[in-house]
Amino acid sequence: MQDSEKQRLTKLKIEHYRGFFDEQSFNFGIPAGKPGSGLTLVVGPNNAGKTSVLEALLQMRQDNLQKFRQPDRHENNKPKINICFENSSHGRYRVAITNQGKGSYRDYTIYNDNGEIANIPAPNLEAVASRRHWSIVDDLSRYGTRDFPEYGNQVTNYMKLRQATGDSLTFRKLGSIRDDKDKKQRLDDMLKTLIPGFTDWDIDTGSDNQDYLEYVTSKGAHRADLLGDGTLSLFRICLHLMDDKPDEVPVLIIDEPELSLHPVAQSGLARLISESSANKQIIVCTHSPYFVNWNDYKNGAKFVRLNKIDDGRCVISELKKPAKYTPSLIKEEWMKPQLMDTVAKEIMFANSILFVEGQEDVGLIRKWLAKNRGGITLNIFGYGAGGFQKIEKLLAMAKDLRIGRVAALYDGGASESEAIAKARKKFLRKEGFRFFQLPTEDIRDKNRCSKCDKKCDCKCKRDGPRGCFDKLGNLKTEHEESFEEIMTRIIDYLVTPSVTSEG
Fold it and tell me: Is the whole-model pTM more than 0.70?
């Protein structure tokens, strides 16, 4: 490939492969010089198909001669994997992968946009499997001869993506940059942002004549195998992120980078990945909300969620239109940072969710649950939507994510009643949406400002809206029965799979 050429993945289609039956697809983030623009974030519950998606992508490598195993195929249908990509000099292409039946090797063909067979290589990719331990020694003792393999051409074997096996490629890459002052400084700067108290690292030779990674601290040096799994994982991920030639290996896959990492390290690593994706396509498969960044999404990142529906079929959902959500999530960030909070980002991972208007609703509902329904928890969105007007946009996000059961609880005002009537027309019962309304104007009693007529709690205000709870957060006797009825219906719907509560 010429230096001026760039290759980018554009779309993945999967059909009759493992848990996927009817064709499912999603788009990839395209690097555009902005943090997060080249990021594709893949999330979803366990056993929803994330590993299948990663292994489908690794099928793109032309040197992968694997057959489709019996568990990967469906009895009467051929597996089909189509990976679309663009070449900046030659246009759009599609890698089509299938097979002809039992025991046969895969069919691998690249087509151009006109459906003609093309003689062009597919984009190269690397895969970082966080579950695979890497060896802190060079088993082949190559460091003394500086004979290192081209790390960019190495990729995790597609059948071993999540097997905890060792390799020495990471060690050899560290050896290759140890004497390159600029590269080592870049790596050290990354590690310093992620590892508290990081000082230095080096390579030494042991009494057995094996070269090994040495971790240097202010109190001395020791072999790196005394480090935790999380720290060793950061070494490997950072090596991949500091790639000097993103056009030669334009796609990086990172599987579950959060494993064994402290939340602060996860947050820092997420920032590094976001920055690196400005110029490189990075696909991250994760269970952690720390890797969800709404600003990445605004800049072009693709958020993909996998679900397994009732009959066991894997389905793919994608947030496709940032304009539907970003005004609520980003525009008012400085005024309402809770909308960007890690707790709010858990919407990407929830199987059921409850939307409420404000943070007091969240706090009082949790207080009531702890007192009256010990052991039961509800997935409540963040610290509230920031007003009933914002709930509709969040409902749209829940719909696009195919969250199975969604409930929304509104205050009892006339405007809220109109909002519920409107929402019921857009978000249907058969799609899993239920709506509930308090019998009072607010969740708790409020004062009302005599000057601006807005709800607040200053001492100079006259009485305002009445709620189910008093100003101190105690449930009023006259509303105990009605509030419990509403909460019981919400709990039955969101927590009990067999219940189809009215709402």
Answer: yes
